[in-house]
Amino acid sequence: MIVETLVLHASDFIEWEDASGAQGGARRPVCVRAFRIQFDDAPADLELVHKNTGTALWRRVPAGLRQVIDGEADAGALQPPDEPLYALSGALLDPAGHYLPRRFALDAGRRTAHKLRLYRSPLGTRFGRAGGLVGRTALEDGSAVPWALLALRVTPPLAPPFDFVAQSDARGEFRLALERLPALTKDAPAASYPGLLEVRAAAAGTNPDTLPVARIRGNGSGDGAFKTQLVVDIAPGRIATLASPGREALVLRFP
Which residues have C-beta within 8 Å of that of residue 157, sequence separation ≥ 6? Predict the structure, then answer.
């Protein structure tokens, strides 16, 4: 005999995902129990429950989200109550420094799974046998461009393209690991693979999901030197500096 039934409904669920490095593989959830979440403005009754795969948002209002029902609950009693949508924004911070700070903004209240991508810092990025790229995103005057999102597509001969992503930190510094990129064979026709780089950045951009495409300085002079994509040569197995031709940094212009 069931004396009572405890019914709990989460408001929403945030799935934190490691989006650094190689793309297209299995989802890589990030447990954020040791992280700090700072809300700009959150409901007073909001509680966070961290799981290995994400964070549940728990509320006490409306009352139907948490209730004790006498006896066995029927199907109607198990249905979640209507909950007004509420805006939730803030930042996720990793005290250990392995992941970069992440701004976010979402509408909660519909028991939705929100997927938010996290990016490893230079400290948290490790290079394997495939090597990687290091560098700094900056403006023409040398001032840093923080939080720029770099997307690199490498196309080995006779193989499908490989996509890689990294984000620069508050100083514009980045490390991009090329894990999974196949090594050059002994009879390879060239000593490198062709790559195509795109960068998203903004003067005050902190949310990687909303950054516009920036222009990258390549060869040439004046405005014509800046393109939305930069062709680069990638030598697997090496750690190389990624920079604009003749420059010490990857020089950007905002749209």
Answer: 188, 189, 190, 193
